[in-house]
Design a protein that fits this description.
Blueprint: H1 3-56, E1 63-64, E2 68-75, E3 82-90, E4 95-108, E5 111-120, H2 122-157, H3 159-170, H4 187-236, H5 243-273, E6 281-284, H6 285-295, H7 297-302, E7 306-311, E8 315-318, H8 320-336, E9 343-349, E10 352-358, H9 385-396, E11 399-405, E12 408-414
Parallel strand pairs: 7-9
Antiparallel strand pairs: 1-2, 2-5, 3-4, 4-5, 6-8, 9-10, 10-12, 11-12
Helix pairs in contact: 1-2, 3-4, 4-5, 5-9, 6-8, 8-9
């Protein structure tokens, strides 16, 4: 859930709760004020009745109007003065209606009377209902204004943040320095832009240092390796060497060759990780596969392998040099780890490339087959071939997977990203 949505929900919920509680309190306060005003009117009627009794010495005539009723009931004792909410019968309409009633005692000629003065609450309730409707309307209008403010004003306020976030998502080591959200009056967003700019600048600087180191190290290693290799060539050609010395020189010669290959593979991995192969081409994978099989034909024949192919037209967009290395590593692994007289099955089409070969099960965990320097001790490789293949696939968003079933090894590339 986005922060904007989360904030809108929390803010909207809080506003609804506060406004409803405020509206409820407002309702009871207004009701109290109106009832208090009605009680004051009843007190005025009480004062007029008591004044009439005091001056005339008699009770005034009872009255029954639409909104007011006055009644006198003989009583044997002095009744307590009190306010009541009552439902009294009204001749107009022929039904009971809500009244606010004041009951107080009156003494006339030595006799006690219970006096009841009642005022209709219908007008008060109608006024209270109108006030409630107006209040609900105001609450709804306020909520609508709050929602509109959250939707438009806050979205505009958060625009620099999303601009910076998008720039961070698109940032890569081969691109230009990070372009942040630009000018903003919000201190937190300015701090975020400054921190993001400093972080990416340091990353770019470290990347350049690492790239230069890898290039320089590779270049510097090539010279001593070439010298060692040439000296070994001269020593091997020396006729005065016995068989033991020749075997030792040959082992050294092979070790230097593997060291050279390892150096080239590590340099290639570093370049792939640093996105130094920026050129992309539309390549026919079937054509590249045909060329690679021709290159490996002698090796396939020498080991008595059968190649079973089922290929269709498949176009990919990637660097041609990396595509050549990807196919080279997958096919060389299928040949190297195959058994004598085994088969290589190749399927290409539908956005997939599947290469399967026969061979004994690996002595290590199959889930680590794409890790660096994981290899069969008898394979003679550097342990970087499949690691390079995985790095190339990751670089272009392809999904590389491996499956082992008894004496069958299957490597699959899905060129279409999984949905």
């Amino acid at each position: 859930m986005k922060l904007f949505t989360k904030y809108s929900r929390v803010n909207g919920t809080a506003a609804i709760v506060v406004l409803l509680l405020g509206g409820l309190c407002y309702y009871f306060i207004i009701r109290y004020v109106l009832i208090h005003q009605l009680d004051n009117t009843l007190k005025v009627e009480e004062a007029e009745i008591l004044d009439h009794v005091h001056t005339q010495g008699t009770l005034p005539a009872p009255s029954h109007y639409r909104d007011q009723q006055v009644a006198f009931t003989p009583s044997e004792k002095w009744v307590a003065r009190r306010f009541l909410d009552a439902r009294l019968y009204s001749a107009e309409g022929g039904r009971r209606r809500p009244f606010r009633e004041l009951v107080f005692p009156v003494e006339v000629g030595g006799r006690y009377y219970e006096t009841s003065v009642a005022k209709s609450e219908e007008d008060t309730k109608e006024l209270l209902g109108l006030i409630v409707l107006i209040t609900l309307g105001v609450i709804g209008l306020l909520l609508l204004i709050v929602l509109l403010i959250n939707r438009f004003l806050l979205r505009k306020i958060w625009r620099p943040f999303y601009h910076t976030l998008g720039a961070l998502k698109q940032f890569n080591l081969s691109s230009k320095p990070l372009t942040t959200g630009g000018h903003t009056a919000i201190d937190e967003f300015r701090d975020l832009d400054e921190a993001a700019g400093q972080m990416t600048a340091k990353i770019l600087k470290d990347y350049e240092i690492l790239k230069d180191f890898a290039d320089n190290a590779s270049h510097e290693m090539q010279t001593p390796l070439a010298i060692i290799n040439s000296k070994l060539d001269l020593l091997i050609q020396n006729r005065s060497l016995d068989e033991r010395q020749t075997r030792m020189l040959q082992d050294m010669y092979d070790a230097v060759g593997r060291l050279r290959q390892l150096n080239q593979s590590l340099l290639l991995l570093t370049k792939i990780e640093n996105n130094q192969f920026s050129q992309w081409d539309h390549l026919s994978l079937g054509t590249l596969l045909d060329r690679k099989l021709i290159q490996f034909d002698e090796l396939v024949v020498s080991r008595g392998l059968r190649v079973i192919r089922e290929t269709a037209e498949q176009t990919v967009t990637m660097n041609s040099y990396l595509a050549d290395i990807l196919l080279n590593n997958l096919l060389s692994n299928a040949i190297r780890h195959n058994r004598e007289g085994g088969a290589i099955e190749i399927f290409l089409g539908g956005g997939r490339l599947v290469i399967a070969n026969n061979g004994p099960a690996f002595p290590f965990d199959p889930s680590t087959v794409f890790d660096r320097f994981v290899k069969n001790s008898h394979s003679g490789g550097t342990g970087l071939g499949l690691a390079i293949a995985r790095q190339i696939c990751d670089n272009y968003g392809f999904r590389l997977s491996y499956r082992q079933e008894e004496d069958r090894h299957t490597v699959t590339i899905d060129f279409k990203p999984a949905v």
